[in-house]
Structures are given as C-alpha cells and as structure tokens.
Amino acid sequence: MKKTVVILLAFLACQLFGKIAEAQQPNVLYILTDDHRYDAVRAFNQMLHGRDMSELGYVESPQTDWLTKMGTTFINTYCQAQGCAPSRASLHYGRYPFRSGVYEFEYHNNNAQHCQPTLPEQMADLGYQTFHVGKLGVRIKTVKNGKVQPHQIYQTDIKFKTMHKDGFTAWGKDWIYEVDGKKLEKPLSNTDFFVTPDGKFQYNSLQLEKERPELAGITEKNAKKYDILRHYNQKKPRKIDSGMIISGVSSRPAGENRDGFYTSVLADYLNTENKPYTIGSQTVDGVNPSKPIFIHLGYDFPHTPVLPPADYRVRFQKHKYKVPEYSQKEFDAMAKQMQKQVEAGFSDHYTDEEKQKFIQDYYAFCAYGDDLVGKAADAFIEYSEKHKQEWMIIYVHGDHGWKLNDHGSVSKFTPWDVDCHNPIVVVSSDKKRFPAGKVVTNFTEFVDVAPTALAAGGANLKSEKFDYLDGLDLAKVASGKAPVRDYVIGESHAVTGPRAFIRTKEYVFSMQTRPDKTRGKNMDWARNAPYKDLDPALYHFSQDPNEVNNLAFNEEYQKVAQAMKEKLINIVLGDNRVEVGWGKKADGTQVYRSNFAPGAHDYKLELD
Question: Which residues contact 468 (CB under 8 A, 6 or more apart)?
Fold first, then answer.
C-alpha cells in the first residue's frame, strides 16, 4: 500500500512538474524587418559610434530604443547572406548557406537528405502553436506522390499575396490577369499598382495603356500623384513604369498600408481566442491561450517601394542629409564581383535633389516602421501578461542592410558592413537570461536565432536531434557561457555571383568561391585558383570604417589577406559544405558535399 502511494505521489509530482515546466515555456514573438540599415536606430548609433544620429543625418526610433532599454542588444550581429531569401533561410534553419545549400533565391524542398525541420516546425514539436503574418521569404517546397508542392511551415500562415489582393495594402507587385473585370490579352507581370483608402486599384503600366486606350495617361498621372522616383540605369533612359521605387509617398495613411495591416492582423489574432475569424478572404483560427505561441511577424519596410505615409514624409523632408561620397578611384579598386553589384544598383548619377529625396524617404519609412514594431510588441506583451505567461521578443533589425549611395549604389548583396551588419535585440520577461539595458559586443550571427528560440522553448540543444544547428543560444552569449567568436562568416550568390566573406573586428576579407553556379562541380576550385582569380577584397575596418580602400593586393597586408583567405576557404568550402541540384522546380535532391577541412570552423583566427 505504502509503495503504491509513493508511486502515485511520484506520478502526480511528475505530472505537476510537467505542467509547470510547460507553463513556463515563453510565448515568443520573432520580428524581422527588410533591407534595414542599422543606422536608422538611435540606440544602435549610440552603442557603435557614441552618437544618436546616423552619419548621414536625422533618424528617429523611439520604439526600438525602448526595446533596447528593456532587453539585451547584440550589437555586433551579422547576417549570413545579403539577399532576402538566403538570409531568411539561415534564420529559419539555423544553418549557414554552405550547410543548407540555399545560396540565393532558389526554391528548395525538404526531402533532400541533409534537410532538417525549420524553426517553426521544431517549435510546434515542442508544443507551440505557430503563427505567421507578413513577408516570409523561405522558398521551401516538398515532394508528395512524386509531385512538387508548396510546403507550409507555420500552422497558421496569413498569406501576404492574398492580403494585397483583398486590398490590405497600399501597393502591389504581382501577376495581373484582369482589370475592372475584363481579361487582359497579355497578363501584366511585375507591374506596380496603388490602392486608395477606399480600396480602388490604380494601375501603373504603359503596356496596360496600350491595350486599353481609354486608360491613356494613367501611368504618368500616378507617377506625379505619388511623386515616384524609380531606379534607372545611367546608360539607359528613364521609364515611368519600371525600375524599383526608391522614393515616393504612400497612397494610404499611416496604419493602413501593407505593414500597418500586418500589425493590426497580429493584434486581431491575439484578441480572438478559441474561435475562427476572417481576414479578407482568409478564415483562420484565433489564438489558444492554453498553449504557448510562436509568432513570426515579417515586415516589408523599408524595402522598396519606399513609400512612407504622407505625415512621416513631410516631417523628414525638413532634414538635409549628408550623401555618402563615391569616386571612380574607389570603383576601380573594388573586386569585380562587387563592381558588378554597384553597377546594377548604381545611384551616383542622380541629382543632388533626388539623392536627398531617396534618403529622406528611406529614413521616414524606417521611422514609420519603428512605430509599428512598438505597437506589435505592446500587443504581444499585453496578451502574455493578461494570461500570466512568460514571454520573449526576438527583434532582428533587417534581413540585411541597404546602401543609400554608399559605394555609389542603392541596393544590397555585398559583404560591406552597411549590407550585413544587423543588430538583434532580445527582450524577455526573464531578466536573468536577457538583462534589461545590457549591450553585448561579442560577435553574433543570424544562425543564432533558431537555437535561441528553441532553447527558450525547452529544447535540449545538446541532443543529437539538434546537432545540425550552426548557431549559439544568445542567452548563453549574454551570460558569457558561449564560445567567443573571433570572426563571422557568410556566403551569397545573388547578383554578385558566388562570394563569401569572413570578418573580424579589424578586417573583412571576401572572395569568389566558385567559378560559376553549377552545383556539385569544382567545389574546391578556390583551393588551387591563383589569388588574383579569387577576385579578393580586403578592408581594414578599424582604420577605414566606410570600407573604401581595397587592400587585397597591398604588400603590407598580404599576411593578413592570406591568413583570412585560408581560414575562409577551409570553413565555407571544406567544413561540411553542401551544394544541391535543386532544379527549376526544386525537385532535385542530389546532394554534393565537400569536407576536406572538418572542424575548421572553430571560432578562432589569430592575425598579426
């Protein structure tokens, strides 16, 4: 009898402990912005440079500044790839591009032998309900019954393409098959349109005007109405209906553009408990307060089209900005791959007035987005505290950065600091794990986001199940219990072609990694290629913070360049590198590996 009672009490204790442990799983809100320069946040400028404003001029960010006061800022975080899709893949997989095989904008499937579940899928396994709204950018598919199909990684996923077709936007860029109920002879692809406050679509297309003569003049009219400035190549004439929009004004007021709707959709989800509800043409289930939640909020701002609401735009037009300088001398010294990117996004041919406009509007858009981030954080914390639940916010400041005539370009895709330096702020109800106001200066990387969320959710990162993760738990980084990185690394193939970088506090070295993009062939090409063929770039960051002077061929820096080159080659090409022949339909699962330097990625790099 006594033995039975003891066993019963032990069982009840275990059950109770399990419930307590489960109850302590924090709700997690993971926020990610897009094309976001770190200097758009005053707190980041203060931490890095001892000033509130950007070197270019006025910025405002009260909500993000508030997050840094409430939580821990990992100020020296770097992204793994300077393009939307590969960067977001590294965040959602917790893996470097050279370990996931996702290097640019390719679709990829989860049936390849090296693939592992994504972060939200792992969180679901831990008992979380998962929810996503906004931009995702993880181009994952699956193969079922021999057919390639879309694969949804969040249990509840509010599709942004459906949202903008429902009018939850101020602009759009998608295939258009009919206008005003009439089918088009030829569908409009990559055509910008604007949506008015009353939900009317205003199209911007010379092709549409040609097909519908009664609409003649609408493209020019709308371009003037919204004061549109598009990017155009200096060698080609301007066009009023093509090229990314780098300056203009939103067709809708603050709170009613695409990002504004993302924020209100999140709030509605948190306020709608245990019952289905509609968002435009979509029907979703409301939140279940009895389970922990993992939410991903993917903002579009300040990605092009850069269209801040009118009130923000007017305020920022009062400020004059220092335009980053650019010279032919700098261009001539650049690596050829980086020259290619600069030419693709070249901007130094714009007038002084136009440069002021696209800088003013960019920072105005950032300020507007900052307000939305604050609203989302408030709604999430209010929900968690209402239900007396622990909570954590992981705020990732941009999937990468953005140039505003830095190096003569408006774009991303390069390993310059302005493109890949993206701080992370973690705010938690558990101040022991993430102390308020703490600033961590050690290197951190985007691959750290997945292990941080998983560890908070109760995952045992030491188990074999999570051996694939490349990152570190940021809670351990903050407490000094994680390895200290001497460097950060990354690789991206978009626009520039295959190029990897390694960065220390003093230097950044980058080089071409492959002769071309043919997967599985010449994987170790860089080991034996002449140094010049690697198209190297070396910048002494501490002495040349704007990374203007390429020292890759400077005799005084050859020891540094060679040491960084060898370390980079051994890591990204020789320490369990993966390349995959995905194919155009993402149906390929042929995995190619290179592993001539296992263990090379040890966080250590000594330079004289």
Answer: 94, 95, 99, 116
